[in-house]
Design a protein that fits this description.
10 helices, 16 strands, about 30% helix, alpha/beta, globular, seven-stranded mixed beta sheet
């Protein structure tokens, strides 16, 4: 089968053996894949948790059809339209744990379905389960113009947030954030953004920040969060190391929580997918929660898809069809 593999000379489409499902695994005939920021690093040879390195089939988000079931797989049957996340997505066939997939709604095509699994699982966990958003609260999403950021704003609104603020350093994308749930859009590269947030919250700061940037905005986040507020750190687009004002953190009694899928067990991931199904799946099926597709590429043009992502001018998801 064809797959996009990282090798000694970089990533390229190669012929590899088709995998065989074992245990609770499902073999998926992939029809479309969503690109994610972590894919760009792995394409350059960087590890993502335990995954990566020479011989790795890249990709982590897909939509397709069940082709075969492992002996212990439950909940789906051959031919079902599904979408999910996991390794080795950029291929004609991939494997997925039966608890790490969703049924693709009948009113979505494969390209649309491939945009959702990572964003839904990541941001329902960050905004609702860990972030504990409540009706009437205020939420700031750092890095809001990414696919997962757009989903985070929509989930916050769905759960009754009174004020949703999104950040983007790009003027065009910042201007589009109100289309996806933002009441206010700020430029996190301008130090005055904290003052804008404080003004919008009556000087108190937001109840919750979901931070995909970290790095240079860490101390500004502390200043923009209300006393006894919460910061959920889900990314490091702004760098992995930065100065941190521990006194301000303590003075404002902020709960600062880190989340990632890289160190979660499969049991923990299954629970996250279950929570999405139980809590917000109706909004997915009704298309109340959805993501824009910026551009679709054929599998043979996957390098162009990555070049488009690395140009960092897209809004929403970049999709590759297989």
């Amino acid at each position: 089968m064809k797959a996009y593999v990282y090798g000694a000379d970089g990533a390229r489409i190669s012929d590899v053996a088709q995998p065989k499902p074992k245990g609770t695994q499902v073999l998926v005939r992939v029809r479309a894949c969503g690109l994610n920021r972590a894919d760009t690093g792995m394409r350059k040879g960087h590890a993502h948790g335990a995954a990566g390195g020479v011989g790795t089939v890249l990709g982590m988000e897909w939509a397709g059809e069940v082709a075969e079931l492992g002996p212990d797989a439950k909940g789906v049957k051959v031919g079902d339209r599904i979408m999910g996340s996991g390794g080795a997505a950029f291929a004609e066939y991939t494997l997925a744990d039966h608890g790490r997939l969703f049924r693709a709604p009948s009113n979505m095509n494969f390209e649309e379905a491939a945009t959702l699994p990572v964003a839904l699982a990541t941001m329902h966990n960050a905004v609702v389960t860990v972030g504990g958003v409540q009706p009437g609260q205020s939420v700031l999403i750092q890095g809001a113009s990414s696919g997962v950021g757009l989903m985070a704003m929509q989930i916050a609104k769905l759960k009754g947030a009174r004020l949703v603020i999104g950040s983007s350093t790009d003027a065009y994308r910042r201007g589009r954030l109100t289309d996806y749930g933002a009441d206010l859009a700020v430029d996190s590269s301008d130090s005055k953004w904290v003052d804008e947030v404080l003004k919008a919250t009556g000087g108190e700061g937001v109840d919750l920040i979901v931070d995909q940037v970290s790095g240079q905005v860490a101390n500004q986040n502390l200043a923009a969060t209300r006393i006894k507020g919460r910061i959920v750190n889900v990314g490091r687009l702004g760098g992995t190391h930065a100065d941190f004002n521990f006194d301000l953190h303590a003075a404002r009694r902020i709960s600062y929580i880190g989340v990632t899928f890289r160190t979660r067990t499969i049991e923990e991931v299954r629970e996250i997918f279950d929570e999405v199904r139980k809590d917000i799946w109706g909004a997915v099926e009704s298309r109340k929660l959805q993501l824009p597709i910026d551009k679709v590429y054929a599998f043979d043009d996957i390098d162009q898809a990555f070049a488009h992502m690395e140009a960092n001018k897209h809004l929403g998801k970049i999709v590759v069809t297989v």
